[in-house]
Amino acid sequence: IGPAIVDVLLPEEKQLNIFRTKWKEDAKKPGNQKHFHLTSGGRKDTNPYNGASITLCITIEGVKILLTGDAHGNDLEECCKKYLNGQEISIVKLPHHGSRANISIEMLREMNCSHFVISTHETRLRPADESLEILNEYGEEKGSIYIYGNYRWERMESAYQGLKMIPLKDYSESVLI
Length: 177
Hints:
The protein is an alpha/beta fold. The protein has helices at residues 13-27, 48-51, 73-84, 105-111, 129-142, 154-159; strands at 4-10, 55-60, 63-67, 91-93, 115-118, 145-149, 163-167.
């Protein structure tokens, strides 16, 4: 598109097949004709709806931007190995608002990135403390880590000194690489 190259990395056929099966099951449930989103439990996201999220890698003049939607962390790790081959990513929108079920140190290593976007209003669950701890650990390996967010997260700024929080003051601001 213009000077941009847009690669669709996920979902692959296996994620779509799981999604289709779950969609058909859920569509038959009474009262579930409009709201198909189901929450996942545990530390690893297994929600087929999240697994079917579209992940894009957009390259513009050598700048690589990875948009992950709500994709599963293990799927992102594998697709980065398969398609990106250790190339440095300029900026990554972290999956599922910084959910602990969608982020791993292995995934971050495969992304090979120092700049991350987390789009969420701070709640008790998001961005998850466990996710911030993983980012902090990755930052100790990688060097400086920058987190761009649409809100200021007070607990992050005080607890994770290795992470540089850059709040975007309003929706009209953008991240400049």
